[in-house]
C-alpha cells in the first residue's frame, strides 16, 4: 500500500474514531464485492449488450409495455439471492451497533445491509425482497418472483410488482424525508460505491452540514464532492483496513 493511501486511511481512522452520528450514503459499488454487478463499472450491466438499453428496461414505461421481457431481465440480472454481505456491509453494521453510525442511506435494492445487521437503513430505491400484487396488494416473497416464469401473477390474477423504484417513478416521500433528516443531522458523511449519476438520490449529499465528508469509490464519481477526503479503492478492502 503506498504512503499517500496509508495517510488517507489514517485520516479516515481518525474521523471514524470521533464519529457520533455518522451517515453512510452508498450505491451499487458497495455490493460488487458480494458478486452483484453494478451499472456503470467496466464490467457493469450498462457495458453489456441487450436488445434494449438497461436504463430503458428498468423504466416504468418498459415495465408496462413489455412486462414479460422486464421480468426475464430482472430475474436474470437484478436478483442475487445467494449473495452475502461483504466487509463493507459488516463494518457499517458494527458502527451502528457501537453507536457511531446513525443510518445507512442506500440506492441498493439487494437487502444486504439488513442481512449484515444494519437496522436504520433508508432504501431510496426500494427492495427486491418486497413484492406486491398490483391489483389486490397481496405481498409475496422474492422467492415467488424468482421461481416464476414469464409475468409473476397473484392468486387473484394481478401482476406482482417488485417494490423497487423504476426510472420515471417517484421515490417514496417518507424514505426520502427520513434520509434527508439523518444526513442533515450527521457529523460525518461517508459516500461510497456510487457514481452519483442517479437523481434525486445523488443530490441528497448536499443536505450534509457536518464536520467531515469522505468519499470511498473506485474511480471518481460523476459529480465533484467538494471538501471531501477522497479514497480511490475497493470499499470492502478500505473498510477492512480501518
Ligand atoms: P453505479 O453502477 O452507477 O456506480 C457504481 C460506482 O461504484 C462506480 O463509480 C464504481 O466505480 C464504484 N465501485 C464499483 N465497485 C466498487 C467497490 N468495490 N468499491 C468502491 N467503489 C466501487 O451505481 P449507483 O451509483 O448505485 O447507481 C445506479 C443505480 O443502480 C442505483 O440506483 C441502484 O438502485 C441500482 N443498482 C443496485 C444494485 C444493487 O442493489 N446491488 C446493483 C446494480 C444497480
In short:
This protein is α/β, with parallel strands linked by helices. It contains 9 helices and 9 strands. It folds into 2 domains: 1-36 and 85-125 and 171-242, TPP-binding domain (Rossmann fold, 3-Layer(aba) Sandwich), CATH 3.40.50; 38-79 and 130-164, SIR2/SIRT2 'Small Domain', CATH 3.30.1600.
What does this structure look like?
This protein is an alpha/beta fold and 242 residues long. It folds into 2 domains: 1-36 and 85-125 and 171-242, Rossmann fold, CATH 3.40.50.1220; 38-79 and 130-164, SIR2/SIRT2 'Small Domain', CATH 3.30.1600. Helices cover 33% and strands 18% of the residues. The strands form 2 sheets. It has a 6-stranded parallel β-sheet, sandwiched between helices. It has a 3-stranded antiparallel β-sheet with strand order 5-4-6. Helix 6 (112-116) links the parallel strand 2 (101-106) and strand 3 (121-123). The radius of gyration is 18 Å and the shape is globular. The structure holds nicotinamide-adenine-dinucleotide.
* Count of alpha and pi helical runs: 9
Beta-strand residue fraction: 15-25%
Sheet bearing the most strands, described?
Answer: 6 strands, parallel
CATH architecture of the largest domain: 3-Layer(aba) Sandwich
Low-confidence stretches: none
| Overall mean confidence score, pLDDT | 95
Strand adjacency order, main sheet: 3-2-1-7-8-9
Number of E strands? 9
Our count of domains comes out at: 2
CATH superfamily of the largest domain: TPP-binding domain
Distance between the termini: 14 Å
Ligands bound, unique: nicotinamide-adenine-dinucleotide
CATH structural fold name of the largest domain: Rossmann fold
Give the ordered list of helices and strands.
HEHHHHEHEEEHEHEEEH
What is the CATH level 1 assignment of the largest domain?
A: Alpha Beta
Rg: 18 Å
SSE-based structural type? alpha/beta
Which descriptor suits the 3D outline? globular
Estimate percent helicity: 25-40%
Amino acid at each position: 500500500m503506498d504512503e499517500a493511501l496509508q495517510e488517507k486511511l489514517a485520516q479516515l481512522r481518525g474521523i471514524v474514531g470521533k464519529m457520533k452520528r455518522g451517515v453512510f450514503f452508498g450505491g451499487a459499488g458497495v455490493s460488487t464485492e458480494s458478486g452483484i454487478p453494478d451499472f456503470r463499472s467496466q464490467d457493469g450491466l450498462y457495458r453489456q449488450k441487450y436488445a434494449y438499453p438497461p436504463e430503458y428496461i428498468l423504466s416504468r414505461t418498459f415495465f408496462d409495455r413489455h412486462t414479460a421481457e422486464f421480468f426475464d431481465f430482472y430475474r436474470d440480472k437484478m436478483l442475487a439471492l445467494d449473495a452475502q454481505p461483504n466487509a463493507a456491509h459488516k463494518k457499517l453494521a458494527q458502527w451502528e451497533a457501537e453507536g457511531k453510525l446513525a443510518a445507512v442511506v442506500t440506492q441498493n435494492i439487494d437487502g444486504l445491509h439488513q442481512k449484515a445487521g444494519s437496522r436504520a437503513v433508508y432504501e431510496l430505491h426500494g427492495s427486491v425482497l418486497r413484492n406486491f400484487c398490483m391489483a389486490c396488494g397481496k405481498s409475496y416473497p422474492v422467492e415467488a418472483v424468482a421461481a416464476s416464469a414469464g409475468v409473476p401473477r397473484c392468486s387473484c390474477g394481478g401482476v406482482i410488482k417488485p417494490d423497487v423504484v423504476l426510472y420515471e417513478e417517484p421515490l417514496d416521500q417518507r424514505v426520502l424525508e427520513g434520509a434527508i433528516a439523518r444526513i442533515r443531522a450527521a457529523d460525518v458523511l461517508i459516500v461510497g460505491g456510487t457514481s452519483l449519476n442517479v437523481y434525486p438520490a445523488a443530490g441528497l449529499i448536499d443536505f450534509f452540514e457536518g464536520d467531515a465528508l469522505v468519499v470511498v469509490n473506485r474511480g471518481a464519481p460523476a459529480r465533484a464532492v467538494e471538501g471531501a477526503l477522497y479514497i480511490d479503492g475497493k470499499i470492502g478492502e478500505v473498510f477492512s483496513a480501518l
